């Protein structure tokens, strides 16, 4: 068992886009892929509901076909940044890797484990 006083959380500031914009976009798109998959894994929550709860998330990931949206973003990025060529393949691999697991089911499992742990304290 680990008590709160024994835990240290190190929160580093987010990556600065001016240092390497392509890297910044990559990190954000990977984060958005994970969030999109979390919502996609639910049976009752639909993307159109996002607008009611989070306009930010709706604008970022509120697409039924997020892969197509990513391709649009990458097309624009390639026009401006020569070092973005690798990104399409990288994001496709990332999408495929995390698509194999239902992220919402994983969340529910971890939530249950946490609740059970709290009950034992």
Overview of the structural elements:
The structure is a single chain. The chain is mainly alpha-helical and 121 residues long. The protein has one domain. Helices cover 64% and strands 0% of the residues. The protein has helices at residues 21-40, 50-53, 55-61, 66-80, 87-99, 103-120. Helix 1 (21-40) packs parallel to helix 5 and helix 4 packs antiparallel against helix 5. The longest helix has 20 residues, at 21-40. The chain is globular and about 55 Å long. 10% of the residues are buried. The model has no long low-confidence stretch (mean pLDDT 87).
List the helices and strands and how they pair.
Blueprint: H1 21-40, H2 50-53, H3 55-61, H4 66-80, H5 87-99, H6 103-120
**What is the chain-wise order of helices and strands?**
HHHHHH
Gross morphology: globular
Unreliable residue runs: none
The helix content is 55-70%
What is the number of E strands? 0
Q: What are the main properties of this structure?
A:
globular, 6 helices, 121 residues
Question: What is the structure about, briefly put?
Answer:
The chain is mostly helical and 121 residues long. 64% of the residues lie in helices and 0% in strands.
